[in-house]
Design brief:
With about 450 residues, the protein is mainly β. Helices cover about 5% and strands about 45% of the residues. The chain is built from four helices and 37 strands. The strands form seven sheets. Strands 7, 9, 12, 13, 18, 20, 22, 23, 26 and 27 form a ten-stranded mixed β-sheet that branches. A hairpin with a 2-residue loop joins strand 34 and strand 35 (about 405-410).
Length: about 450
């Protein structure tokens, strides 16, 4: 074996159990990209940093990275053979430092005939994650495959999906962010071999065996925009963000129904969002008016999404403390719309800064037609007056048990329509809640 793969460490008996200490690996690491056959110190940056994993390492974890010459020095109840060692998945110190675990224990190399491959990792808390997929060519070089991985945080699990377009040898690597530097570091890696399947074809004259690539039989192989991971972000904890633990942040719609998402935030904070189209061969465009904060009552939030056309859309929810102008992302969801090309989906109205403890029933269409009568119905329980304002004309809505209702004529001029509320009975100040557009058409 090459000397550069040799290593040494110290064993310590502490409080009735054995542990390992590796000062060399625990105090520094290299950073850089080189070919495995051409490792040179000048190609790599040597960085000094304490890594907790290599100090008092449990033997059950140590065996994933080091194989002693003497099996007894594994310090395990049952020694692992070389054959078993090479089948262990590649797990790096970030995997152990972050207390990750596998739902179903994988091996270093796995075979599949399917186009979709998944690894599920149990998470003790929400983490920044990402995944990359490489295809090994016949000459040993690696090709990075863009848009073939997706990481979804669902409850306390990270579902890492890889789409294998054709038979071959792939390498799937999962990364997590370092808590101190924010750098993405390898947590674990796997080799995946996609194989062909065979089926028997019967003809009038003979029976033949045909090799089939399962990906060619699947209309949709899987190509996603580069979105790192989906679901709640680590910063969501600061705002007490909660979501249904079984809610998948990757969604599919044909445009026939709205997508509805319910959240909770336990702190009083400001919220905003964007809804960006990320489809191939199209410039990224924010369709924020096709995402509506339909209800914000106490800690409860209800968002409705309605993509305007076919494609991928990334919904991002941002939060900021009261008095701050710095918004941070607390949740991400990916929506794939397969609606018909000729369909028209109108935008929602825009919710404004005082849309708090409110619920909108109608109108949900953000584009209102000229010279038409529109029924308004919204809940603003803390308001003393609610008015619809068109130009300089104010139309007061009627209060019916905390619901405000009224039929409003839009008039003959295009422009903006706003809904205002007054929250102090003795004051004269009105705050904006919603904004609509009065138009004669629904063209972009």
């Amino acid at each position: 074996m090459s000397r550069r793969f040799r290593n040494s460490w110290t064993a310590a008996y502490l409080d009735g159990s054995w542990h390992f200490i590796n000062c060399n690996w625990g105090a520094r690491y290299t950073k850089g990209t080189v070919k495995a056959s051409e490792v040179k110190s000048r190609d790599l940056d040597l960085l000094y940093r304490y890594d907790d994993f290599y100090f008092l390492t449990d033997p059950d974890d140590h065996i994933y990275q080091h194989f002693p010459d003497d099996p007894k020095l594994q310090l395990l109840g049952k020694a692992v053979s070389m054959e078993e060692f090479v089948r262990l998945p590649v797990l790096k110190s970030p995997f152990f430092n972050n207390h990750f675990n596998f739902i179903a224990k994988p091996q270093a190399t796995m075979k599949t005939s399917e186009s979709k491959f998944e690894i599920i990792i149990a998470l003790p808390k929400t983490m920044d994650l990402a995944a990359k997929l490489h295809l090994q060519s016949a000459d040993g070089t690696m090709e990075s495959l863009v848009g073939k991985t997706l990481v979804r945080i669902i409850g306390s699990k990270a579902v890492v999906s890889a789409y294998l377009p054709h038979p071959g040898t792939y390498y799937l690597t999962v990364y997590t962010a370092d808590a101190h530097t924010g750098d993405m570091e390898c947590a674990c890696s796997f080799q995946i071999k996609k194989i062909t399947t065979t089926k028997t074809v019967c003809t009038d004259t003979a029976t033949e065996t045909a090799s089939i690539d399962t990906a060619t039989e699947t209309a949709y192989i899987g190509t996603y925009p580069d979105v790192d991971f989906l679901g709640p972000t680590p910063l969501a904890r600061k705002y007490g963000f909660q979501i249904n633990k079984r809610m998948d942040p990757s969604m599919l719609t044909d445009g026939s129904e709205r997508i509805k998402m319910n959240f909770h935030v336990t702190t009083h904070c400001k919220l905003t969002h964007n809804f960006i189209c990320l489809s191939k061969n199209q410039e990224a465009r924010d369709f924020h008016q096709h995402a509506l904060l339909q209800t914000r009552s106490g800690s409860g939030l209800s968002y409705w999404l309605n993509p305007p056309q076919a494609g991928f859309y990334l919904f991002s929810l941002f939060a900021a403390e009261e008095g701050s102008t710095t918004f941070v992302c607390i949740y991400k969801a990916l929506v794939e719309s397969k609606m018909a090309e000729y369909s028209y989906i109108p935008p929602y109205p825009t919710t404004l800064r005082k849309w708090f403890d409110c619920k909108l029933h109608q109108p949900l269409n953000g584009e209102l037609q000229l010279s038409s009568k529109v029924d308004f119905h919204l809940e603003v329980p803390t308001a003393t007056d609610v008015a619809v304002v068109i130009g300089q004309k104010w139309h007061m809505l009627n209060n019916q048990e905390d619901s405000w209702k009224g039929a409003i004529y839009t008039g003959g001029l295009s422009g903006k329509l706003r809904v205002y509320a007054k929250f102090n009975a003795s004051g004269e100040s009105y705050s904006p809640l919603l904004e609509y557009t009065i138009t004669s058409s629904h063209c972009y």
